């Protein structure tokens, strides 16, 4: 098992992988259609996207958390 102190890194890894897979699949489909080699074209696109998305999520997630905290109220403040 992975220690809990690395949970934010694992979360970023999984989130960036899934999101970049979905977005790159849509972008690839819109660009090339559905040729026989779609999977290999998409996979190359996805790996490139993920290599950028993972560090981006590590940097952007804390900023997004702070913005959400500023824009929302806690249950005690009601």
From TrEMBL:
<feature type="transmembrane region" description="Helical">
    <location>
        <begin position="41"/>
        <end position="64"/>
    </location>
</feature>
<dbReference type="InterPro" id="IPR021529">
    <property type="entry name" value="DUF2798"/>
</dbReference>
<protein>
    <submittedName>
        <fullName>DUF2798 domain-containing protein</fullName>
    </submittedName>
</protein>
<dbReference type="Pfam" id="PF11391">
    <property type="entry name" value="DUF2798"/>
</dbReference>
<keyword id="KW-0472">Membrane</keyword>
<keyword id="KW-0812">Transmembrane</keyword>
<keyword id="KW-1133">Transmembrane helix</keyword>
